[in-house]
Each structure stands twice: as structure tokens, then as C-alpha cells.
Amino acid sequence: MREIITIKNLNYAYPDGVEALKDVNISIRKGEKVVIIGPNGAGKTTLLLNLNGVLEKEGGNIEIYGENIESLDRKDIIEHLGIVFQDPEDQLFMPTVFDDVAFGPTNLGLDEGEVKKRVRKALASVGLSDYEDRPPQNLSYGEKKKASLAAALSLEPDVLVLDEPTAELDPKSRSELIGKIWELNEEEGITTVIATHDINAVPEIADRVYVLNRKIVAEGTPREIFTNGKLLKENNLDVPEIFKLFEVLNCFGLDSKELPLSMDQAIDELTKTMQTENGHIHLHIHEHTHEDIEKLKDKYEHHQTS
Ligand SMILES: Nc1ncnc2c1ncn2[C@@H]1O[C@H](COP(=O)(O)OP(=O)(O)OP(=O)(O)O)[C@@H](O)[C@H]1O
Ligand SMILES: [Mg+2]
Q1: In what residue span(s) does the ABC transporter domain sit (predicted)?
Q2: Residue 113 exposed, middle or buried by CB count within 10 Å (0-12, 13-18, 19+)
Q3: Same domain, 168 and 263
Q4: Average pLDDT in the chain
Q5: CA proximity to 77, closest of 184, 139, 165, 158
Q6: What's the 37 CA to ligand 2 centre distance in angstroms?
């Protein structure tokens, strides 16, 4: 598949000397869902800001559709790449929500009718249709996150770059957003690049995961990453809760060979087990159950809460 974004040997240091990125290599192909995970201060935000030219790289190369980012002007970049910042305050600066969402398409030189159409569509898709005339600074944090997403969607980009999109969203808004990302990717072919701490969401929003910790320390499918205990520990990362639950069930004799990472995978796994076990799932306490559970608690540094 065609490469949309290629990052080669990227370095970035902030003016005060903090070396945020060291020799980062990434390639993103058209139609992929890529997630970047890593501890606080790992450089995820810095990497995404380098991608759309907000920050200027210090060494290495960034190409969009094979063109060096330095040879592209701002309009070329925003036409391909819509970014939603981690902090919505950095994104919203116009007097009304409408103006903020209209800002990108207006800058692309689209006519007024097309701009209006795009703004309405983008606001509807994040559930903010009634917010057009509201001043962005008065919105709640979650509403600001949604308005920022609408501002990127109105550009109708090939690549949507999202920095912590689910942070601060209520549970319903969070699952709607995950569904939206899935739909944009599957149905509209939009490539998504997402930095997140929302580990439970990763299996649903990622075909491929990069682990960043100043440099790229690993790359693989969600399963490859979440089954690499050493990697996770070294980089302050966790696994999805459902994966842990099935590890617990295995201590009680479930014998799940491929631990599920999402609810859908859990349903498949249980259905398969039932089919091979004549419609039953057998759980029991065996000789090693308690010992295995203690090992699990240790592995996840689980703190007793009851
Ligand atoms: N404007 C800045 N000036 C100086 N240093 C900065 C600036 N912004 C970020 N840094 C530093 O660069 C490093 C990477 O920060 P960055 O925000 O990219 O991390 P992150 O992976 O996005 O973290 P988080 O998970 O907390 O969002 C950190 O050590 C941070 O303190
Ligand atoms: Mg960040």
C-alpha cells in the first residue's frame, strides 16, 4: 500500500535543551490505523506537532506522499493532514464554534456554501450541531475536545492525527468517538494516527502500534505489543482490562489460548470454547490457582481495594 507519511531519523530538542525525540523512524501507509503509546513525556505530542509542521525538526526527514515537508506549504499540509491537539485550548481561538470549525476550510479557499456544508456535517458528526454560535472558551473541556475534532474533520483530510482524543470524554462520548474513528477509517478510507493513554481503546483503533519513549522502542500489532510483558513494564504501559480478566479466568482453568484484547474478541473466544466443550465453560480452583493469581497481581502491581 502507498506510504502517506515517512519519518526518517527524526530528532527534536526544545529550546531549553530537552531532547524530546531521538532518531525516530515511522512509516504510515494509506488506510492504516496507527496508534502511538508511551509514558508521560515520551515525546508523543512532540512527534505529532512535527508531523504537521507546528514544530520544526532538527534533524532527519519527514515526507508526506513522498514530498519533503519543507517543500510543502501550509495549505498542502492541512489539505492532507488534519490534526487535533491534545489541549483543545491550543486549537480554538475564534469568537464562535462555527468560526473555529470553518477556519480550516476557509483557508483552503473553499466557497462559503461549501464551508457551511462542511461545518454543519463536522459539528453533527461530533454531536455539537446546536453549538454553532457558542463562544468556544465557554464550552466544557469535553465539548472543547469535540469542537477541536470537528475543526479537523471539516478539512476532510486523508490523514487524521489525534492527540489523546478520548481524554476527558464521558463514557458514551468516548465510545461514540471510538465508533467514529472506526467508521472514518473503514468507510471513508481515512488514515488515522492516534497518540493515547487509553489502552482499552487501542485494540479497536489500531492495526499497528508504535511504542515511543523518546525513540521508537517497539512496533507491532496490538497483540504483539500487549503480549510483550518486558516491553510493557519498561515503558510504564498496561494491557486492556479484558485481557487481564481472561488471564484471571485462565488461573481458574479456562485455558484460553489467545487472550482477548477487546469485547468482540472475548465473545469470539468464549463462543469457540463453548463449541468445543459441548456448550459449557468449566472453571474450577485447582492446585495452583491462588499461586497463579498472586503472580498476576504482582505482574500488574495490583493494589487490593477491598
Ligand atoms: N514547550 C516545551 N518546552 C520544553 N520542553 C517541552 C515542551 N513541551 C514538551 N516538552 C518536554 O518534551 C518531552 C516530551 O513531551 P511531550 O509533550 O511530547 O510528551 P508526551 O509523550 O506527549 O506526554 P503525555 O503523555 O504527558 O502527553 C517532555 O520531557 C516534556 O517535558
Ligand atoms: Mg502528549
Answers
A1: 5-239
A2: exposed
A3: no
A4: 94
A5: 158
A6: 10
Edge-to-edge order in the sheet of strand 33-37: 81-84, 159-163, 191-195, 33-37, 208-213, 215-220
Query: 304 in a domain, yes or no?
Result: no
pLDDT tens digits along 227-267 = 999 999 999 999 999 999 999 999 999 988 899 999 999 99
Domain shared by 27 and 158, yes or no: yes
Could you give the CA distance from residue 295 to residue 251 in angstroms, rounded to a whole number?
Answer: 10
Whose cell is 497463579? That residue is 292
- In angstroms, the CA 74 to CA 185 distance is 24
Cell (9 digits) for 305: 481495594
The per-residue pLDDT for 250 is: 95
Cα 177 to the center of its chain, rounded Å: 11
Range of the domain at 28: 3-234
The grid coordinates listed for 120 are 454543519
Q: Do 141 and 290 belong together in one domain? A: no
CATH number of the domain within which 133 lies: 3.40.50.300
Q: How far apart are CA 218 and CA 121, in angstroms?
A: 38
45 close to ligand 1 (CB < 6 Angstrom)? yes
Same-domain status, 247 and 191 = no
**Look-up of cell digits 469485547:** 263
Look at the chain and report how many structural domains it folds into. 2
Whole-number pLDDT of residue 76: 87
129 within domain boundaries: yes
Residue 305 lies in a domain: no
What's the 49 CA to ligand 1 centre distance in angstroms? 11
Cβ(44) to ligand 1 under 6 A?
Answer: yes
- Encode burial over 200-232: b for 16+ CB neighbours within 10 A, e otherwise: bbbbbbbebbbbbbbbbebbeebbebbbbeebb
Mean pLDDT of 211-232: 97
